[in-house]
């Protein structure tokens, strides 16, 4: 029994055991004993036993070709070539498709310098298995090593009849070039290109590298005219359906080496105009390098523009409703393109109408139309500009929303074309279809510039029927009548305006009316206006404005009138909850008294000034819970204190508490009192 079942301190794994066994070589088998043959009989006996072993293995499994090859190689090692041939032939009867068997058989014959036997084997091999390229390579190499160039060429010709892969043709071409047979190599290239061209009729994407190799072959041997012709044939063969950037890059580099820079530029531009941009990255790169080396500034700029154009094309293709990308693209095209190309891009851009009829989605889109119209106008084609404006206005859903700027720009364009009736018709249509404040203002401004005041009056009337709460319109209408000298009409307009039940900026309207009466020096009417305004509102600024008006009225009683206004205001503001406004009034009153008042009036206003004190109040959160305390400033007015005795009692209590604290402090520090008395 194991008493201690705890794990050992040093753990040993199975991997460790195997590694140690391998290091110690515990299972090392002793080498077989060496056998020494001393006479012929012993040798014959050894051969018999080995042959019997090989034959037994073959009988057990005839399809294992390695047994046949070992048997034949053993016979070959004994220089029994005839027996080895017999074994190889028997093996070929079993499996004639085995490539290794043919290779071993032919190599045996070549090793033993049996050239004719080797030729026969290679002939049988390429006849039986013509698609095994290794047989052809070995056969042609053997004939070339034997110096039989004609025989090797004949083998190559037989091989080419089977239309092998690309490397076989190049091997044939290299063979001819090794013997300086350039014309033969050219004819092989021609046959190969023709073969590939016929094969390309079946293929979807034919390969261009063979044409490039052919052209470089001609260039290498200084046949430049032939090389150019090969490139031209390749361009014609592939056409525009299967254009490849590698072909045009190679063609351009060839022409660059021949110093034909204009031809290079034409090749690059031709390719860039026709090859899809995503497949022309390498073409762009090489064209840029070429222009930097041999081109001028204009050529380099063309390259950069082409590259940016490609980027914008990709952006608008990915998201056609990315109007910012369209703006950048159009700006680029306008700077460097013909009018027709620019129009085409504009047409593509405006075709991407926002899918949702909400104004926020159309705000960027509408500027495409505006830029298009301005571009056409700058191109001095008024007819096309008018068509652009009209097409845009027909496209807009005016029942849901409209863009006043489009109507106004169209009207301004017609005025620049000296076609005033069309401009008025456009603005009239806009007001009829979709009235807006901006449209009315633009139309009125146009008629004002034309000095058509009767039309302005009619437009203001329509405008105020449409938006009676718009104080600015009332003010502008009254100012127009004032300029025209019709004061009664202006006053009537102001009266109508302040009588409206709903106004967006009533304080501005009242101020304008008051300023109008002051300008006309109608002081009584101005006072009446102030009184009417004070019946509607008791705002402190109205009182201060009335006081300043009385001060500036210029009459003898201006100071008493002004002081009386301040008195009335102070009485009216006592019930006001906003104490800051009352303080503002008193400060304004004090400023008036300091400038125009006497000592008595100054002393009186100083007594009216409030005391500023700091207070605390509880805060409550939205859910009703306590949110702490906050400090704030409050004002206590002497007039309010006199009317409220509780406040006076509170002040006396605070004073008594302060005196008590001082007396307690003195009692706690008697030495200080002694020192003070001695001092």
Give a structural overview.
Helix content is 73%, strand content 3%. It is mainly α and 679 residues long. Among the domains are: 214-295; 611-637, no CATH class. Strands 1-2 form a two-stranded antiparallel sheet. A hairpin with a 5-residue loop joins strand 1 and strand 2 (626-636). The longest helix is centred in the C-terminal third of the chain and has 24 residues, at 645-668. Involved in pre-mRNA splicing process. As a component of the minor spliceosome, involved in the splicing of U12-type introns in pre-mRNAs.
In short:
The protein is mainly α. It has helices at residues 14-24, 40-60, 65-77, 81-94, 99-111, 115-128, 133-145, 149-160, 166-178, 182-200, 209-220, 224-238, 245-257, 261-274, 281-294, 297-318, 323-335, 339-350, 359-362, 365-378, 382-395, 404-416, 420-433, 437-449, 453-466, 471-483, 487-498, 506-519, 523-536, 540-552, 558-573, 579-596, 599-608, 638-643, 645-668, 670-678; strands at residues 611-620, 626-636.
Average pLDDT taken over every residue: 78
Within the largest sheet, what's the order of strands?
Answer: 1-2
- Radius of gyration (CA) equals 55 Å
Which residue ranges are poorly predicted, with pLDDT under 50 across at least 5 consecutive positions?
200-206, 672-679
Give the overall shape: elongated
The helix/strand class is mainly alpha
Major sheet attributes: 2 strands, antiparallel
* Share in β-strands: under 5%
Total strand segments: 2
Proportion of residues in helical segments: over 70%
- Span between termini: 108 Å
Number of discrete helical segments = 36
């Amino acid at each position: 029994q194991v008493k201690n079942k705890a794990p050992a301190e040093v753990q040993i794994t199975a991997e460790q055991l195997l590694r140690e066994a391998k290091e110690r070589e515990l299972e090392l088998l002793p080498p077989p004993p060496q056998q020494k043959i001393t006479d012929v009989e012993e040798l014959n006996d050894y051969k018999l036993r080995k042959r019997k072993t090989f034959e037994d293995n073959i009988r057990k499994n005839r399809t294992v070709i390695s047994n046949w090859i070992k048997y034949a190689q053993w016979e070959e090692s004994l220089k029994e070539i005839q027996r080895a041939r017999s074994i190889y032939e028997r093996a070929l009867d079993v499996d004639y498709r085995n490539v290794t068997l043919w290779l071993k058989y032919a190599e045996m014959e070549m090793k033993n310098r049996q050239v004719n036997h080797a030729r026969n084997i290679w002939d049988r091999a390429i006849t039986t298995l013509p698609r095994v390229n290794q047989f052809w390579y070995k056969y042609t190499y053997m004939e070339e090593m034997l110096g039989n160039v004609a025989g090797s060429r004949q083998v190559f010709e037989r091989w080419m009849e089977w239309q092998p892969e690309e490397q076989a043709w190049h091997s044939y071409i290299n063979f001819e070039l090794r013997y300086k047979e350039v014309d033969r190599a050219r004819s092989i290239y021609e046959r190969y290109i023709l073969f590939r061209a016929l094969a390309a009729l079946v293929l979807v994407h034919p390969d261009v590298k063979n044409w490039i190799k052919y052209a470089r072959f001609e260039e290498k041997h200084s046949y430049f005219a032939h090389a150019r012709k090969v490139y031209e044939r390749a361009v014609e063969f592939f056409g525009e359906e299967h254009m490849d950037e590698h072909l045009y890059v190679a063609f351009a580099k060839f022409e660059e080496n021949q110093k034909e820079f204009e031809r290079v530029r034409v090749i690059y531009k031709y390719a860039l105009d026709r090859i899809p941009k995503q497949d022309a990255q390498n073409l762009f790169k090489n064209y840029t390098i070429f222009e930097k080396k041999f081109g001028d500034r204009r050529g380099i700029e063309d390259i950069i523009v082409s590259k940016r154009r490609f980027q914008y094309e990709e952006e608008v293709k990915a998201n056609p409703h990315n109007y910012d990308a369209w703006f950048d693209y159009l700006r680029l095209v306008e700077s460097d393109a013909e009018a027709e190309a620019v129009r085409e891009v504009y047409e593509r851009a405006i075709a991407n109408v926002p899918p949702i009829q909400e104004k926020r989605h159309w705000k960027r889109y509408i500027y495409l139309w505006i830029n298009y119209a301005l571009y056409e106008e700058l191109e001095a084609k008024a007819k096309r500009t008018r068509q652009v404006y009209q097409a845009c206005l027909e496209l807009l859903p005016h029942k849901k929303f409209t863009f006043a700027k489009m109507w106004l720009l169209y009207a301004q364009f017609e005025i620049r074309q000296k076609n005033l009736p069309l401009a008025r018709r456009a603005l009239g249509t806009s007001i009829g279809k979709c009235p807006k404040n901006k449209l009315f203002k633009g139309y009125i401004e146009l008629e004002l510039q034309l000095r058509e005041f009767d039309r302005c009056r009619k437009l203001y009337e329509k405008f105020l029927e449409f938006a009676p709460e718009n104080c600015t319109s009332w003010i502008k209408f009254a100012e127009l009548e004032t300029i025209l000298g019709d004061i009664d009409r202006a006053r009537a307009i102001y009266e109508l305006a302040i009588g409206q039940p709903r106004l967006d900026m009533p304080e501005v309207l009242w101020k304008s009316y008051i300023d109008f009466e002051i300008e006309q020096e109608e002081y009584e009417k101005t006072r009446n206006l102030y009184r009417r305004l004070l019946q509607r509102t008791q705002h402190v600024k109205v009182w201060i404005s009335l006081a300043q008006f009385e001060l500036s009225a210029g009459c003898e009683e201006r100071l008493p009138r002004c002081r009386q206004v301040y008195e009335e205001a102070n009485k009216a503001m006592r019930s006001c909850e906003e104490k800051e406004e009352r303080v503002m009034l008193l400060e304004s009153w004090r400023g008036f008294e300091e400038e125009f008042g006497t000592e008595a009036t100054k002393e009186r206003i100083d007594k009216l000034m409030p005391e500023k004190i700091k207070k605390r109040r509880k805060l409550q959160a939205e859910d009703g819970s306590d949110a702490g305390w906050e400090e704030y400033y409050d004002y206590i007015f002497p007039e309010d204190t006199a009317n409220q005795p509780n406040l006076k009692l509170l002040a006396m209590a605070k004073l008594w508490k302060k005196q008590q604290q001082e007396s307690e402090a003195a009692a706690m520090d008697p030495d200080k009192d002694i020192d003070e008395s001695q001092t």
